[in-house]
Design goal:
Blueprint lengths: L1 H8 L21 H15 L6 H4 L1 H5 L1 H4 L2 E7 L8 E7 L3 H7 L1 H12 L4 E8 L19 H7 L5 H16 L11
Parallel strand pairs: 2-3
Antiparallel strand pairs: 1-2
């Protein structure tokens, strides 16, 4: 019996080598990179295939109709992604007007998707939040003279404005861009 008790009392031998912890896979991702995934899951839960329908509603239907309506959900037949029903919340008495332009709304939403995603629109009267006007971008330095001369030949005013803003942004920077927060 002494042998049995002595075997119990002796500690087990330690492992000679413990395996090293496995390194984590992938790279570090910024919060901004992760948010579209979280937003996409939330929008899908409430019936939206693309969150862009909500965020770009004013571009899809125009500011006049976006001011009195808001997309609530898109419901598709089971297992399909075509022929869905777009559910809109419409402010007060505007629902009658929106019913008259329902074919136009369907056409615009389908043009946005690129296929016949929506076949029907249902309206519900309710409170529609007023869309916030977009803030103007901060003013930048004027376009350098040498870049301004090359931009004068561009006929499209929208393209010219975008290129001028790009040139002003480049002119406002100093030195090479920093990578990874090395400032």
């Amino acid at each position: 019996m002494d042998d049995a008790m002595s075997k119990r009392a002796t500690p087990a031998p330690a492992k000679a080598s413990t395996p090293a912890e496995r390194p984590r896979g992938g790279r570090a991702r910024s919060v901004a990179e992760l948010l579209p995934d979280a937003g996409r899951a939330a929008f899908r839960r409430f019936g939206f295939v693309q969150s862009a329908v909500v965020s770009r509603w004013s571009e899809i239907v125009g500011p006049r109709y976006a001011g009195v309506s808001s997309p609530e959900s898109i419901k598709f037949p089971h297992g399909e992604r075509i022929g869905g029903t777009l559910n809109l919340v419409v402010r007060g008495a505007h629902a009658t007007m929106m019913q008259h332009i329902a074919p136009e709304i369907i056409e615009r939403v389908n043009r946005f998707f690129g296929y016949a995603a929506v076949a029907k629109v249902q309206f519900r009267q309710g409170d529609v939040p007023v869309p916030r006007p977009r803030a103007a971008p901060p003013s930048l330095k004027p376009v350098p003279v040498d870049l301004g001369a090359s931009l004068r030949t561009i006929a499209d005013p929208e393209l010219k404005a975008v290129l001028e803003a790009l040139a002003a942004g480049v002119a406002a920077t100093r030195g090479a861009p920093s990578v990874g927060g090395d400032e």
